[in-house]
Structures are given as structure tokens and as C-alpha cells.
Predict the 3D structure of the following.
Amino acid sequence: MARLELLRVSKIIATSRVVLQDIDCTVNDGELISMVGPSGCGKSTLLRCVAGLEKISYGEIRIGNQRVNDLPPQQRNVAMVFQNHALYPHMTVYQNLAFGLRVRRVARTVADARVRRTAARLGLDALLERYPRELSGGQRQRTALGRAMLREPGVFLLDEPLSSLDIPLRAEMRRELSALHTSLGTTMVYVTHDQSEALSLGQRVVVLAEGQIQQIDTPDGIYKDPKNRFVAGFVGWPPMNFLNGVWLADSGLDTQFVDYGIRPERLTLQPGSSSDVFIAGTLERIESFGGEWQVEISRQGSRVIARVPPDSALRQGTELRLWFHREDLYTFDRASGRRLKDSR
Ligand SMILES: Nc1ncnc2c1ncn2[C@@H]1O[C@H](COP(=O)(O)OP(=O)(O)O)[C@@H](O)[C@H]1O
Ligand SMILES: [Mg+2]
């Protein structure tokens, strides 16, 4: 187990393209942190830099209080599991798991005991003689994880390890990973482009965009207290609704162009209290999710989505009011995207 520190880590490629800019982040010993951001924002590059597969342009990476910038991957005390968890196709599960130990010349009986213990822990004991092509996606995933675990790293780096699995299996593997983290207590960095996965798995969440950290916070903090419009719009499903506005400062003299934001789940069909306010528009679309409906209204070219209980009185094409508490409204500076807290 080890602490991972990233200090102003930056990576510039092709003379001037900045892929990572001033990444400052500490992953505590034993912590599971998730890193999330849209495709192409630099997540894999960052993990590869930590693993030592790529060089950083400046900054410092420290693992367990040791500067590792110049250490080769095998001396960094990390294990990485990739998206396309490449197993050796001509080796059985057992051989895949044992491979790293053989390379390190661990005694055969010791290696055998460790492989079997890890396999049992991951529910692979009945599959040891199978080849990767004979495994399901989840079983392959577990084999790749087992291989990484057998390295007993100080830090686990997981790069979208579940993205090739179908949705029910992903949910199951996510729970398994979480349980595994609890029992191993190893420092883990879990990278994903899926915001719901990041929030459900991470003890803290790092939101990245265009090579820069937008926010580091608990899942609850990221959801309830986004620092800017990007984070607000990226986290939550359906995404936060945004409306143009002009904000008048208390003096009534200064004005500022802003975007107002309201989450779909904070909108209701009836006012919840006398101080509630509403947005009105034409009901354009009703989408049923069984126990919940999503309704969409249009208002002067903007669209607003609400998650509401099913209501058979709703009619497409009619005027609909969506109510909310004033304190659920977020305000962002339009130019910078920065959250304006005082306006709430
Ligand atoms: N070695 C490289 N050469 C050229 N472009 C790269 C290299 N590494 C990363 N990039 C670019 O950097 C950006 C970040 O990529 P990546 O880290 O794979 O993002 P993510 O994993 O978040 O989807 C992308 O635009 C990618 O094309
Ligand atoms: Mg990637």
C-alpha cells in the first residue's frame, strides 16, 4: 500500500499540444479514487504516466514518498489493468495468473499457493484450466484483475476496466471491485468516462476536462456543490438543465450574464411550498421509464427536462409548469463557467 502524489504533472506532445496541465492530486494510502472525464481528456495518458509507460514533461510523481519520475515501470510498485485487459491467449487462466510470478522466479510451491488463493478470492478456482477464449467477459476481467493483484502493488491503476462488459455485468463487477478494495485496502485509481460509475465507486472523484482538473471532491460534493458549469453538466443524468439569464447585483446597477442550472430531479409538477417558483413551456415529450417519467418542455428555444412520477393527466402540446425551490437553482458566470455562490 502506498500514497500517490501528483505535483503539477504536465505533459506536452508534438511541440505545443498540452495533454495534461498542472495536475495536482494526492491519493491517500488505501483510498479508492475515481477519475472521470469525456473521451480524450487525458485520463489514460495520466495513468500511463503514473505507471511509467510515458514520460511527463514537468512536475513530479511520488509513490509512497519516493519520487518515481525516472524509475522504469517495474520499479514503481504499481499494477495497471487496461480496458482491453490483454490476457495471453495461448495460456490457461492458471498460467496467465502465474506468469508474473514465474518471471520473478518465485518458488513453484509458493507461487502455486498464491495463484490458488487469489483465484479463490475472485471466484476463478473452477476455471483455472480454461483458455481466455473459453471465458465470459466478466471472467476475463477477473483474471486480469487477479494478475494485477498477484503483483501485490502499492497502487492499482484501472483504466476503464469494465467498459467492454454489458450493463448488468458491469454493475456486478463494480460491486465486486468495491468489495475487493475493502478487503485488500490497496490504493486504487479507477478511470472511467462514465459519471455514474465514478460516483458510485470512488471515495473521492476527480473530474477532468481537456487535461485539467475541474474538481476533486466526494461524490456527494461533486453532485451537490459543482464548482463550474462543466462539472454541473457532466455529473447527473439526465444532465442539469441550463437557462440563459441576467443577474442583477444587489445594487441593481451591475449586471452579469449568467447561466442558471436546475437538476431534472429537483423539478416537480406541483409547488412544494408557497415560495416555490416555476418555469413554464410547451410539453414536447413524455418518456416513460416505468416508475418514473421524463418530461421535456420547450421555452423560448431552450429545453428543460424533469424527472417526475407518472401522471396520466399530462398532454403533449399543452402548457406545463415545472416548479422548484429557489435554493435548488445554480448560477454560473456565462463567460468563465464559474459557479456564483452568492446568488443562491
Ligand atoms: N503519444 C501520443 N501521441 C499523440 N497524441 C497523444 C498521445 N498520447 C495522448 N495523445 C492525445 O492526448 C489526448 C488524451 O488522450 P487519452 O489520454 O487517451 O484520453 P482519454 O483516456 O481521457 O480518453 C487525446 O487527444 C490523444 O489523442
Ligand atoms: Mg482512455
